[in-house]
Amino acid sequence: MDSWKNIIGHSSKIDWLKKSIADKKFPHAVIFSGVEGIGKKKVAEICAASILCEENSGGEPCGVCPSCRLMAAGSHPDFHLVAPEETKTTRNIKIAQIRSIQNEAALKPLQSANRVVVIDGAEFMNNPAANCLLKTLEEPPSQTIFILITANRAGLLMTMRSRCVTVNFEKLTAEQIKSALLQNEIDSSQAEKISLISGGSLGRAMSLAKSGGYELRETALDLIERVCLKKFTNEDIFSKGAQISEWSREQFFDFVTYIQKILRDVFLIGQAKLFNPDLEERLGEIKISDAQIFKMIDAGNETQRRIKSNASLRLLAEAYFLRLKMTARKL
After folding, report:
1. For a Cys-Cys bond, which of 148, 164, 217, 238 suits 122, CB 3.0-4.6 Å?
2. What is d(CA 39, CA 41) in angstroms, rounded to the nearest whole number?
3. H helices within the chain, ranges in order?
């Protein structure tokens, strides 16, 4: 079973959580907010194990009591994990899932003194589900604790946010991510480069390391070069959109991240350390004004926000590439 020593970073947050658990003052409802892949879910699970632990020594799970053994086996009757139901085009937490945990929350815990409900991807609750949960948070069962995990706190109802204590998790440093990659036997040179473009997310860094991040970065650089040379046609937009429609949302998000880092490097050449120092010669050949760089980065930021919604990847990609092309035409 995971313990606090396995968490990378977030030391001040962990200290507060451990003390709250040890003092039995953990909030009845808490939001863990921060970018994906920085350990929020693992922290939530360790919090749950610590709360349910029969020893509760210093806010740590003892690892040996019956509750800890059940948590390690993934079969604790008082721990409930809710996650979005996924299809190729949508991710949703539905009202039936929330009603199910409401029914559980109304009952006495079976094994421990409390019950813990973790809702992973809470921003994906549809409106009926969110309003259903809100009613529970307004009159919370005394023995049930809710932990909502989100990469987009603004996507939660304002009234829901007001009834929860929010813990904001910061992005990991490049050095922390590099160290973790090296521990996972990722080549040192690759770990160095991936740590700089992972956006502070270890989960994203691991994904890039496993899914051919170098090739994706090369594709992103090629696209920007063609856009800025005004060689990216409408036919290219449609064919690339069709290709991306077969990708996962995570892969498209990472692809846009590469483009964002490349654009920032073009702006930073000669002024600061680059995200992609090995590409400096090619980046120096990209001729684009600062104003256009900022517009393209804004387009990327907006696209990444919408990737997290249920919007069609193909339509998102086509709209994004069209904005890049139209911006380059004004150079």
Report:
1. 148
2. 6
3. 11-22, 40-52, 66-73, 95-105, 127-138, 158-162, 174-183, 188-197, 202-210, 213-228, 234-244, 249-268, 280-283, 290-307, 313-329
| Coil vs helix vs strand at 311 | coil
Residue 157 zone, left/alpha/beta (φ > 0; ψ -120 to 50; rest): beta
Query: How far is residue 314 from each of residues 63, 167, 204, measured CA to CA in Å?
Result: 47, 34, 22
d(CA 152, CA 172): 17
Q: Note the pLDDT tens digit of each residue in 27-60.
A: 999 999 998 889 999 999 999 999 999 887 788 9
pLDDT band at 270 (very low <50, low <70, confident <90, very high): confident
CB-based burial of residue 102 (10 Å sphere; 0-12 exposed, 13-18 middle, 19+ buried)?
A: middle
Residue keyed to tokens 């299809």: 87
User: 227, 241, 236: which is closest to 292 by C-alpha?
Assistant: 227
Per DSSP, 108 falls in state: P
Buried b (16+ CB within 10 A) or exposed e, 135-151: ebbeeebeebbbbbbbb
CA dist 315 and 307 (Å) reads 11
Angle at 52 between CA 66 and CA 163, to 5 degrees: 165
What tokens does 284 get?
A: 């120096």
Q: What is the pLDDT of residues 293-331, one digit of tens each?
A: 999 999 999 999 898 877 889 999 999 999 999 998 875
